[in-house]
Design a protein that fits this description.
heterodimer, A: 236 residues, alpha+beta, four-stranded mixed sheet, two-stranded antiparallel sheet, 7 helices, 19% helix, globular, disordered N terminus, B: 739 residues, alpha/beta, seven-stranded mixed sheet, six-stranded mixed sheet, 22 helices, 28 strands
């Protein structure tokens, strides 16, 4: 099985482009991700302790002062770096780079050293300090495709690998935009584009080459699989 | 070895018994699923999932949805790509419908209060309907009030028919109700009863007064669809957005230019822009003539920029520049939008008339990139009653003219201004019946609770208002079977109507009501689903999640434009020397005005501007906070001229104007599930019960407050750290393209 899987999946290189000129910071991606990926409920204490788990979060940065002030939004998720600083420090190989460009987390291997979280410059990796708990009825909503992570391990965005697997299972050829991660699926302004960078005709490949494209903290050389398109500043 | 007959029979017996015994002990076949590893990747989930198309009414918003159902349980909600309003996308509140369905604090069966103030006991639905029937039949119909949220589609038809047949009072409740002011302005200006669509995707320039249409106003998902194209749509130049508003909202953050105008002066600003355009001859001449009664700019000279600039708080040259930008043909089509706090003022109708008249002056009425009229709805609508009507209703409760209140998801005790003491009025009523699935403040006062389905469990239709410019009907079907012993609200009314022998309710249940509408649509033989047989039409319509007809557009004709007012109405407010700050309440991105506060995802969605969640805070300008000796997390007392107060922590927001105190709505519930109760403060409680002078709508943006410090602090739960995050000059995280 492994041989067949590798030969079919190696054709893909998954990537994402986020257009900051379309993003309004509306949080639809954040909640869609939490629903899809069985992320524990972030209660008030989680925010107060700085322990809220959001595989994708929307950061807001101020520029200027009132009245010439501007808030800029930056959705941050695992950048699936080709030179991922998190991978090289994991003592148990719980995180590695697969042949489709994904930075993968194997929950069963993770022993919770948190080295990867320390080494991630994007703060995209989150540690489960507590056992995730849902009230009995709410458990009915949990996505059967996604493992519920136990206490003591790291977790992070997977580009909704369960959707990738479902769509490409058995070497199935998949058309561009046939599926999307939950955040991209929800984004009301179409700010997020996901797809196969190995497909030169894919929408994400076109946007990858856009003149507004940049990577966050590019100087670190992590070579992320996520690019952002600059917000356009017209004269005020 | 020789085998004797006796030995043979003994062994045969033991073997047979053993076979039976061990067969009985083994795990039944259906519990063992041995699969070849070749066919069982590590992530394969056994079971079969189905996707059901449905529709949901989320307050003023409409979204067509696809629900993933597995093993009889709803797992995920996503937008229906076919639905013309949200075209495959969805917002926080739609996603959180899953949590409404599986909420641990749902009321699971009908409840009857044993005695006033006593505990509830469980009853069955037969008894519940009988009791409801008796409550209505034992009274003069005029003594019975049915309060519902805004309703559209088949649910509105059933509710209206029930009210008509029983002759009870029917009032729609929306805590803010501000859409009614803009709607009245559009009716007076353009003769439209249905809310027009804003063709944001094809506009080149948008001037927006107050409406946070990308965050919380009417239908943010729909407007955001257009906004993405407005900014970076293929084959078009980037649109320009100017936002006028008192709070730096999601829409203000998205804008190219944010203008702070004194709350309540938005109409003055719009009139001043209109004056400038007409005076400079850049406005549509026919519209200018009609709006000024043929007198031209002279009629509006009271609004010349230099005359009104000080009252608006915006320099005269900025007003002129806005007029020039709006009139500039290279920016056309231009679109002017208004609503939210700009409409929720004592002069709200004046503001909205002035704002929406600008569309006529730039030739953007009923055209691509401008206001696009919608046809009259196929089904009925229950709109929100004005604050003036609610005041009368509360007085009728106190005087004994209303003795029974039937309330469906309308939390009067929470949502009406505290100065009106809705709780006290409700207490004076003999009987309260709640149809809520959750024990909110009003339901806590109820004598009888008939819990109804959540949207994923029931039949219905939803006609978006605004629609996309043509007739659109989303079909709502149960994606899952009912999770508790609940009934559809429509079914409760139909069963009760049957017991009461009411005329005008020909349907046995909501499914039949929806099918009868579908039959009408089928007979039209046009639209998105056309099938020879009704059976096939029904199936296809449910599969697609609705029916829409791009050819069924609004009648293009419209009455002549009315003449605009030549002077601004006088508005009184609390003494600014005693109450120096404008209170700007704003809807929470998830919890809205409190109606979604019971849903954990709605609570935990951080406010985009502050990143705060689960709480209430007051946003103050850094200089204002400094002058008052306040810093982040200091608890202050916010007191309005009603004398009512809330205690909330301070968030020093660098984008808050100096004379503004902005407070999010949605918290401060006494009840409404464990996720909402005793959390934050209810800013609606301290609002002055001011009305728009003409429509009587709630002027919830017209309250002034003063703030005093305390010695206490409370850390605001939020995503960002202790200090507001800023871009570091020279080491930007976010790069910007200078156009």
């Amino acid at each position: 099985m492994a041989t067949r899987t590798q030969s079919t999946r190696a054709n893909h290189k998954w990537g994402m482009v986020i257009d900051l000129d379309r993003c309004t910071g509306c949080q639809a991606c954040v909640i869609a991700c939490q629903s899809e990926n069985n992320i524990p409920l972030n209660d008030q204490t989680a925010f107060l302790d700085g322990r809220a788990i959001e595989w994708i979060r929307v950061e807001r940065y101020w520029e200027g002062d009132y009245p010439d002030i501007k808030a800029r939004f930056l959705p941050v998720l695992c950048q699936h770096c080709d030179n991922a600083p998190c991978e090289s420090v994991c003592p148990v190989y719980a995180t590695y780079h697969n042949n489709e460009g994904l930075n993968v987390q194997v929950y069963n291997r993770c022993v919770g050293t948190r080295f990867c979280g320390n080494n991630c410059p994007y703060h995209a990796r989150l540690f489960n300090y507590w056992e995730p708990v849902w009230p009995e009825d709410l458990r009915n909503q949990l996505n059967p495709d996604v493992t519920v992570r136990t206490r003591g391990i790291m977790e992070k965005c997977t580009f909704c690998i369960q959707r990738i697997r479902r769509s490409t299972r058995g070497g199935k050829q998949v058309e561009d935009q046939a599926f999307n991660p939950a955040c991209v699926q929800a984004c009301p302004t179409d700010a997020m584009t996901f797809g196969d960078l190995n497909n030169p005709d894919s929408r994400v490949s076109h946007k990858w080459e856009d003149e507004r494209a940049f990577r966050v903290l590019e100087a670190l050389g992590t070579n992320p699989s996520v690019k952002y398109l600059k917000q356009v500043d017209a004269h005020a | 070895m020789a085998l004797t007959r006796r030995q043979f029979l003994k062994w045969a017996g033991v073997t047979g018994i053993g076979a039976v015994v061990f067969n009985g002990c083994r795990v039944p076949d259906h519990e063992i699923q041995v699969q070849s590893p070749v066919e069982m990747p590590e992530d394969l989930v056994t079971g079969r999932d189905n996707y059901y198309a449905t529709a949901a009414q989320l307050g003023l918003a409409s979204e067509g949805l696809l629900v993933r159902v597995m093993e009889g349980r709803a797992k995920k909600i996503e937008g229906n790509p076919d639905h013309p309003v949200n075209t495959g996308k969805h917002g926080i509140r739609a996603e959180a419908l899953l949590q409404a369905l599986y909420h641990p604090d749902r009321i699971k069966h009908p409840l009857l209060r044993i005695a006033k103030g006593g505990p509830f006991r469980r009853i069955d639905w037969t008894e519940a309907i009988e009791r409801l029937t008796a409550i209505i039949s034992d009274r003069d119909p005029n003594e019975v009030l049915l309060a519902t949220p805004l309703l559209r589609g088949r649910a509105a038809d059933v509710v209206q028919a029930f009210a008509d047949g029983s002759r009870i009072r029917l009032q729609g409740f929306d805590a803010l109700g501000c859409e009614s002011v803009a709607r009245e302005a559009l009716r007076q200006l353009y003769g439209q009863n249905a809310q027009p669509d804003f063709d944001i995707a094809h506009a080149s320039y948008i001037l927006n007064f107050g409406a946070d249409f990308l965050g919380t106003w009417i239908n943010p998902t729909h407007y955001s669809r257009g906004y993405g194209e407005f900014r970076q749509g293929d084959g078009r130049s980037r649109g320009r957005l100017v936002h006028v508003g008192a709070r730096y909202s999601t829409t203000a953050a998205a804008a190219d230019h944010w203008v702070y105008a004194t709350p309540g002066s938005e109409g003055l600003l719009a009139m001043s822009i209109a004056y400038t355009m007409i005076d400079e001859g850049t406005a549509d001449s026919d519209a200018a003539s009609a709006l000024t009664g043929g007198h031209g700019a002279r009629a509006l000279q009271a609004f010349a920029p230099e005359r009104v600039a000080a009252r608006i708080g915006v320099d005269a040259h900025v007003i002129s520049e806005l007029a020039h930008e709006l009139a500039d043909k290279k920016h056309h089509p231009a679109l002017v939008i208004g609503g939210g706090p700009a409409a929720a003022q004592a002069n709200g109708l004046f503001n909205m008339l002035a704002v929406y008249a600008l569309n006529a002056l730039v030739g953007s009425v009923n055209r691509s990139g401008g206001l696009v009229f919608n046809p009259e709805p196929v089904s009925g609508r229950v709109s929100s009653a004005s604050l003036r009507e609610w005041k009368q209703t509360l007085a009728d409760m106190r005087s004994g003219d209303i003795t029974a209140v039937l309330v469906r998801e309308s939390d009067l005790a929470y949502g009406l201004p505290g100065a009106l003491d809705a709780r006290g009025a409700l207490r004076s009523v003999d009987t309260i019946v709640s149809f809520s699935s959750f024990l909110d403040e009003t339901s806590e006062l109820a004598d009888l609770i008939l819990p109804c389905h959540t949207p994923l469990e029931e039949w219905g239709t939803d006609e978006p208002n605004p629609g996309p410019g043509y007739t659109t009907i989303g079909f709502q079907q149960p994606a899952v079977n009912r999770f508790h012993d609940t009934l559809s609200f429509g079914d409760v009314l139909l069963q009760t109507g049957s017991q009461l022998g009411l005329p005008g309710l020909p349907w046995e249940n909501m499914r039949e009501a929806v099918r009868s509408l579908a039959q009408d649509l089928h007979e039209r033989g046009r639209g998105s689903v056309v099938q020879p047989t009704f059976a096939e039409f029904w199936k296809r319509t449910l599969e697609r999640g609705g029916w829409w007809d791009t050819g069924a557009t609004a009648d293009g004709s419209r009455p002549d434009l009315p003449e605009l007012a030549r002077s601004a109405p006088a508005v009184s407010s609390a003494d600014p020397s005693r109450y120096p700050l404008h209170l700007v309440p704003f809807e929470g991105i998830g919890v809205g005005a409190g109606q979604y506060a019971h849903l954990p995802w709605a609570q935990s969605a951080p406010d985009p501007i502050t990143s705060a969640a689960w709480d209430t805070w007051v946003e103050l300008n850094p200089h204002t906070a400094d002058e008052m000796g306040l810093k982040n997390n200091d608890i202050v007392i916010v007191e309005s001229s009603t004398g009512r107060t809330i205690r909330v922590p301070v968030y020093v927001n660098p984008a808050t104007p100096p004379d503004v105190a902005a407070v999010p709505m949605g918290q401060g519930h006494r009840a409404f599930t464990s996720y909402a109760a005793r959390r934050g403060a209810n800013v609606l409680d301290i609002l002055e019960p001011t009305e728009d002078s003409e429509t009587g709508a709630f002027a919830w943006g017209a309250t002034r407050v003063r703030i005093s410090g305390t010695t206490r602090t409370r850390v605001i739960p939020k995503l960002e750290g202790l200090e507001p995050a800023r871009q570091l000059h020279g080491e930007e995280l976010i790069f910007v393209h200078k156009a």
